[in-house]
Predict the structure.
Amino acid sequence: MRLQYPTHIHIIKVPCTGRVDLFHLLQAFEQGADGVFVAGCLEGDCHYMHGNLFARKRVERAKDILAATGVGRDRVEMYNLSAGQGTRWAEICREFDERIKNLGPSPIRLAHDKKAA
Amino acid sequence: MIKATPKPLEEIINYVKDFNKILVAGCDGCVTVCEAGGMKEAKVLGSALRLYYTQAGKDHEVVETTITRQCDKEYLAELKDMVENADAVISIACGCGIQYLTEMYNDKIVFPGVDTHFMGINADRGIFEERCAGCGQCVLASTGGICPIARCSKRMLNGPCGGSEAGKCEISKDTPCGWHLIYERLEKLGQVDSFTKPVDPKNWRTSRDGGPRVIIREDLRKAEPQHGSAHS
Amino acid sequence: MEPRTPSKLEKIMAAGHLGVTSEVGPPRGADGAEIEHKGHLIKDYVDAVNVTDNQTSVVRLCSLASCIRLKQMGIEPVLQMTTRDRNRIAMQSDILGAASFGIHNMLCLTGDHQTFGDHPMSANVFDLDSVQLIQTVKLMRDEGKLLSGFEMKVRPQIFIGAAENPFAGPNVELRALRLGKKIAAGAEFIQTQCIYNIPKFKEWMKIAVDKGYTDKAYIMAGITPFKSLGMARYMKTKVPGMDVPDNLIDRLKGVPKEKQAEEGIKMAIEMIQELKEVPGVRGFHIMAIEWEEKVPELVKGGGLYPRPQV
């Protein structure tokens, strides 16, 4: 199975999405990410019971913060899929990449670029 | 412990939008326990403010820190350099911490980053319930260990009122009737007799009604040197 | 029991007659004539008229001013006072003001929480509760003292009333104990919550009689006629502490809509007849909510007319 997904997606592996804190998500944006998605196990299948459910709540809060700070709530998302769903993974990557491309570069990255120039 | 919740980010941004150098000061005490003003929350707020200033194209410097307690000047002293370096401070300690920080650094503008609510317990993750109203004259000995002032919506000392139904308060089906709880507990303890005697009007002077309160514990104060001691 | 005050209501019950009171809800505006109009409707059919104190925490023309209006019409008022909106300073002051106008009856209440009313954002007071308000009036009347200990030259003469809800939680036993507590504090007449569940009321009355409470205070049974099936359902489901048995709802359901009001009056009259026979019942408090014109019919139907002269 040779599935194609956009090469500019940077993957950060964590043992469980429950490990992803709110400030991790925000820091990614501070460092210039245009979008961030959290890919957790299917709901009900968390090895640590509720990790992916906590992650979803943090993503929801991140959306509110990104909205309030003018970054935009659609730049962060939560997805759930199992390790066996390679096709779905590729699909999510393409789908999210498409969404972010439509939104354009993050205002944070633009501001950084402007400063650097 | 004291229970607080973070203020809406929009409100905080509105306070500090015209400042550049911000110190977000958390507290490792009560507000850490209720996840409103500890290091994690300071980092989130700091990050959010940097995102805001960056997208708005404003120069900024946002620093986050916490100290052991903002209600002690010894710990507040640790903030000296950071406060001096900032244009404005957002304290995410409880209302006491925010004020004491302001008192210590009187020429600095300090904004509250949380809303402080009450003294309560951690009923479950993310559920905090009020238990004590700080009336200054504890009545728990005669009410089965359940406070009628904090837990009855009408702070009645001779409850329950006629609005108590199926163990719930008239204000909401989610609020237990404090007096129902008291009665059940007195029954369990075989103390229902104490329920039949009218309780006299309370002296509220020890409560908020008496004005701002101060406790002076002479036994805890620094001892004055004794004159004419054998070794003088 | 010997009467202790100039209250006509007290004298009537002390003479062994069944007392009859009703209530008037003041308007949500400055129209004093409305109180007078309502007063006129029931004047000759009751011994005294309660005036509610910002009932359900909705701002209305004040109870004290309304009572003065009634008094000036020759109607005996019962000043209702809740502890929700006033501290002990304001309440004692209002009691003195009421007494200065010859108001001789009071109903001491804690009051509904303000969340129910039109100003849910307001602060509440609750410096005292109903039991402590009873104690306060008694202290003022019998010892001539304020809560501060200050001795008055002229004491208020007030027949002290309280409300009790036999149907509220946790159980009938506690509700009877609480009645006892109010009587121990100084309550001399009790107006009960609207009674619909007669067996439960009798259970509560029996405890009151057995414990000797009825020797110390006059219990006045609360009567509120149903105007419609809708009202009965509303009382059952929406009003805190109200106990409406299904058989009453069913009875109204069995009657065509246009006859429900008439049936409601019939049911209330039957209730008065039945409650008259319950040991310890010394009177009736008829709360015909926004239906004051029906009070004469209820009083006559209940065999409580004409009212005794004392």
